[in-house]
From TrEMBL:
Transmembrane stretches, start-end: 36-55, 62-82, 102-122, 129-148
UniProt name for this protein: MARVEL-like domain protein
Protein's organism: Cordyceps fumosorosea (strain ARSEF 2679) (Isaria fumosorosea)
Domain of life: Eukaryota
Assigned keywords, A-Z: Membrane, Transmembrane, Transmembrane helix
Length: 156
């Protein structure tokens, strides 16, 4: 076959270089860091977390629930951080594990968005709170979905 005259940016040729695993892992680590920081904030300083999210000061029971939620979010963030770590390699099984972990994060954030929507519809949340909390969850879900799409699973 004769050599092609097409430029390297031709739509007939594959992209020059896909995103490297290291770049994707840095993006995922940043997402994990956000979730870990938020979770630890809820766990260690629940009243401050309430104030940052524009929520009314919590009752004693709400503080405990906030700490439980913070522990779960921190654990998920820690899991994502560990799975994205280079020590797990970049083989097919690691990439599949990373995609599965990201899918769980996206699902959890999507459920949080729906919960905020229900809270807004029932009057449990005011619009500014919905904007901060629901909007934050939506942004995290979108970032997780973008990370999920960027993880390339190649054959070993």
């Amino acid at each position: 076959m004769a050599p092609s005259d097409h430029a390297t940016a031709s739509p007939l040729l594959p992209p020059a270089a896909p995103k490297t695993a290291a770049a994707v892992n840095k993006f995922v680590a940043a997402l994990a860091g956000l979730k870990l920081a938020f979770g630890l904030g809820c766990l260690l300083a629940p009243r401050l977390a309430f104030a940052a999210l524009l929520l009314d000061p919590p009752a004693a029971q709400a503080v405990v629930v906030t700490q439980l939620y913070g522990g779960a979010v921190a654990a998920l963030g820690g899991l994502l951080w560990m799975v994205a770590a280079p020590r797990y390699g970049s083989g097919r099984s690691q990439r599949l594990l990373l995609k599965d972990t990201l899918a769980v994060h996206v699902a959890a954030d999507a459920v949080d968005v729906v919960s905020c929507g229900v809270g807004l519809a029932t009057g449990a949340l005011r619009m500014p709170v919905f904007g901060v909390v629901g909007g934050g969850c939506a942004v995290l879900a979108a970032l997780g979905a973008a990370a999920y799409r960027s993880v390339v699973v190649l054959e070993d």
